[in-house]
Write a structure and sequence with these properties.
alpha/beta, Rossmann fold, 4 helices
Length: 106
Amino acid sequence: MAHVWEIDDLARLSVLGISGGVSNPSRTTAVVNALVKAVALRLLADTGLIEITEAAPSLFAGLSRGALGASGEAIIQRVEKADLLVVGTPVYRASYTGALKHLFDL
């Protein structure tokens, strides 16, 4: 007989928003946050948000992952463990922000 899956049988998904906005308050952060909440309601997911403006000091502490401190490493691990990333960035000189690029380079 086939197993009937129930919601308790499934692990909750993790949806993480990443805002590359460099101003505070940031319209980019508002949009990313709204999208994360909308997805979470549909998927019954756990959510989180990383704002580059707050994360930058920890991320710029090193040019490589091995040079990061504990707080920078924790940010990278949150990104790696997420099931779904919702990433938003303002366009700056026809590209995304340098701080956001640095996060993904690590």
